[in-house]
Structure to design on (216 residues):
């Protein structure tokens, strides 16, 4: 039989295990034969064990213009099982995705990027779409991104939009851990986060990305 000291040690180990970050929600499916900037595109992803795989519906390259040069920032991929995803306009693409949850958007970075630049980029997008940066969900999202640390080349950030009945959730994860989550939301309350890619563009680089999304 185990003595009390050994049991105590095991109990501490179990507590430590229980406090570790949650495993990633997104499970990557098979790679396709296509790539963007040597980033292999995925055919599918899933958001939980046993759930139907979500198909990649569109993708694109996010670039940023600095002075006269274009720099590649990340490859975006959007996944959904929506039967009627619309590609005639950005607004229709966004609305059809919102009606087809779950949706996953992945961003695979093509360079090291300081986290201050990432937060600045998100903030510019929110402001372009008339979102108050001091509102709790957006403020908390930006704080969580800031705390997640600098971005490394080939690092992936995944954004998961899910629905259970009338309740909608929004989760962000990277490096295998959840870094931000909103539960019990409405479609209207998560609109600002869809606008990161599908709202009013804050620069010409996002305009170019949106044009790619409309030509999957």
């Amino acid at each position: 039989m185990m003595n009390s000291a050994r049991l105590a040690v095991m109990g501490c180990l179990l507590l430590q295990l229980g406090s570790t970050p949650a495993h990633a929600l997104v499970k990557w499916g098979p790679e396709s034969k296509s790539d963007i900037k040597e980033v292999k595109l995925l055919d599918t992803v899933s958001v939980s064990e046993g759930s139907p795989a979500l198909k990649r519906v569109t993708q694109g390259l996010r670039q940023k213009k600095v002075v006269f040069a274009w720099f590649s920032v990340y490859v975006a991929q959007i996944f959904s099982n929506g039967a009627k995803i619309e590609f005639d306009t950005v607004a229709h693409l966004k609305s059809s995705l919102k009606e087809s949850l779950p949706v996953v958007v992945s961003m695979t970075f093509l360079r090291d990027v300081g986290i201050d630049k990432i937060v600045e980029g998100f903030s510019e997008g929110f402001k372009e779409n008339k979102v108050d940066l001091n509102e709790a969900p957006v403020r908390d999202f930006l704080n969580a991104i800031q705390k997640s640390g600098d971005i490394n080349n080939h690092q992936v950030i995944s954004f998961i939009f899910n629905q259970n009945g009338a309740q909608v959730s929004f989760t962000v994860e990277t490096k295998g851990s959840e870094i931000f989550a909103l539960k019990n939301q409405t479609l209207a309350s998560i609109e600002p986060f869809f606008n990161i890619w599908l709202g009013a563009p804050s620069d010409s680089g996002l305009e170019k990305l949106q044009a790619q999304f409309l030509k999957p």
In short: The domain at 22-213 is CATH 3.50.70.10 (Chalcone isomerase). Helices lie at 4-18, 90-98, 115-128, 136-147, 191-198, 204-213.
